[in-house]
Amino acid sequence: xxPREGLARAIRHFGNSTKLARAIGFTQPAVKRAHRLxxxxxxxxxxxxxxxRGKIKxxxxxxxxxxxxxxxxxxxxxxxxxx
Length: 83
Fold this sequence. Notes:
The chain has helices spanning 3-14, 17-24, 28-37, 42-51, 58-61, 63-82. By secondary structure, it is mostly helical.
């Protein structure tokens, strides 16, 4: 899933970009701009994940920022479990 597709999914989840913006504490123009550019802010991604109760993951919206964190956490968990 691309970041733009993830944002489109979040918009559909809430019904429209105004409702999404209200739910995540951003303005509607900020949400529309992020969707148009396909690049939401890191804060927006975290807020979307929280507002959708995890149905839309932050790493789907910004894999360049969050995917590495997920892999590091998974790797450290795997190592600690193997010990």
